Amino acid sequence: MKKIATGNKAVAEAVRQAKPDVVAAYPITPQTEIVETIADFVTSGQLKSRYIPVESEHSAMAACIGASITGVRTFTATSSHGLLYMHEMTNWAAGARLPIVMANVNRAIGPGWNIWAEHTDALQERDTGWLQVYVSTVQEAYDTTLMAFRIAEHNDVLLPVMVNVDGFSLSHIMQPLDTVEPGTFIPPCHLPHAIDPKNPTGYGGLTGPNDHFRFRWDIERSMRDAVHVIEETEKDFAKKFGRSYGPTENYRCDDADVIIIAMGTFGKEAEVAIDILRKEGIKAGSMRLRWFRPFPKLDLAGKEVVVIDRDYSFGYGGIVAHEIMAKEHNKVYSVIAGIGGQEVTYDDIADFARKRRIGEEFWFGVTGNV
């Protein structure tokens, strides 16, 4: 069915069709529209789910954990400080190997208080064991949320998945949306270690030095296995519904001398910048990074690389830029832009490539180079 929807509405529609048994949530700008829409679905009978309006984001994740332990499908959504408030429980969810799906509407961290887009909130969660994917259109927000349930619940993964949606610049933007009937695309949830009242066992007990590292390794093994599960899921989605996705979305990269890398809506905006640069004779391409965890292998050999980070690790640098330098052994031109919703146009992105100085860091909007 074709319609016009916001990014938030698209996520909610995908959740309705995935049919989670439990949704626990607490409102926070700019995510609130997701859980409000889901609450309306439950109230109207369009979604037969237990909706739990909790008193905090910490409790929202705790409720999803409690439900998921029993083997049922669960969903929640949050943003910014709500995600930070969940932090204890996001670690718990991954450590307990629970396939919770969560939409995170990316928003800056205060103070000063700011409700606009930034990726630092999600990237502070990068080491918890959650799979992370960043989307750039309303359609992709819908499609990726559907796929997230199947990926998380696959027995080779059994890890939670965070679908990241840029605040306002995608969460509240109106774009065309083509919905589907997922049918058997998302199989029933089966948690092999679900609590069974007929066979009581300990859960989440104390583990000593001889065993704890084995649990950590098991998360890493599953994160590696997730690579092929994601690939198979995206291929099957393309076969059934005609829309293709991958770990990155590449645009005019094959013969490019310089590659612009960004996540979220900036990654899509960069495609316009590439067309401008091509008309000027600059052989540029864009590589929108979709999956941040597990981090994909990128083909950057022989390319100059410009990375736009909508985040920052203080005292270290742009998080995505340093991930790429560590994994790919590439020097990059690291651009810090869009922090707290700072406006960045495709002309600005084109200018980053024109003025690139590989091996340096540049803060957009700050007088003088840093």
Measured as a percent range, the helix fraction is 25-40%
* Stretches with pLDDT under 50, minimum 5 residues: none
Based on CA inertia axes, which overall geometry fits? globular
- How far the N terminus sits from the C terminus, by CA atoms, comes to 49 Å
Number of helices: 11
Write down the domain tally: 2
CATH superfamily of the largest domain: Thiamin diphosphate (ThDP)-binding fold, Pyr/PP domains
| Level-2 CATH architecture of the largest domain | 3-Layer(aba) Sandwich
The succession of helices and strands, N to C, reads EHEHEHEHHEHEHEEHEEHEEEHEHE
Question: Would you give the CATH topology of the largest domain?
Answer: Rossmann fold
Provide the residue-averaged pLDDT.
97
Strand order of the largest sheet: 3-2-4-5-7-6-12
Tell me the β content: 15-25%
Please explain how this structure is put together.
The chain is an alpha/beta fold and 370 residues long. It has helices at residues 7-18, 32-44, 57-69, 80-85, 87-95, 120-123, 138-153, 212-241, 265-279, 319-328, 346-354; strands spanning 2-6, 22-25, 50-53, 74-78, 101-106, 131-134, 161-166, 174-178, 248-251, 258-262, 284-289, 291-293, 304-309, 332-336, 361-363. It has 2 domains: 2-241, 3-Layer(aba) Sandwich (Rossmann fold); 248-363, Rossmann fold (3-Layer(aba) Sandwich). 37% of the residues lie in helices and 19% in strands. Strand 6 (131-134), helix 7 and strand 7 (161-166) form a beta-alpha-beta unit. The longest helix is centred in the middle third of the chain and has 30 residues, at 212-241. It is globular. The mean pLDDT is 97.
